[in-house]
Design a protein that fits this description.
alpha+beta, 3-stranded antiparallel β-sheet
């Protein structure tokens, strides 16, 4: 489908960026079987979430997990912006 064709490369970009920052996604993605959603656990999830929100980068924060969802309206620039803010917040 068109959304998956657009979003799957963004999920791969996001996962690679998280791993470069030393963050391990809770569920690894597999080529051709992307979920569109990635989550990480962090003991400072609340503080990191606050920094993301202050930068107008919106992700879900619940129970020590930050959850990122890629969809048809997201872009590679969105992924890089998230990773830049996350890099500074870590």
């Amino acid at each position: 489908n068109n959304i998956a064709t657009h979003a799957d490369p963004l999920v791969a970009q996001l996962e690679a960026g998280l791993r470069e920052l030393g963050q391990t996604p809770m569920a690894a993605q597999r080529e051709g079987n992307y979920s569109g959603i990635l989550a990480i656990r962090h003991d400072r999830a609340d503080a990191i979430h606050a920094e993301l929100e202050a930068a107008e980068v919106h992700v879900m924060n619940h129970a020590g997990r930050l959850r990122m969802a890629m969809h048809g309206y997201n872009t590679a620039i969105d992924v890089e912006r998230f990773l830049d803010v996350l890099r500074k917040a870590l």
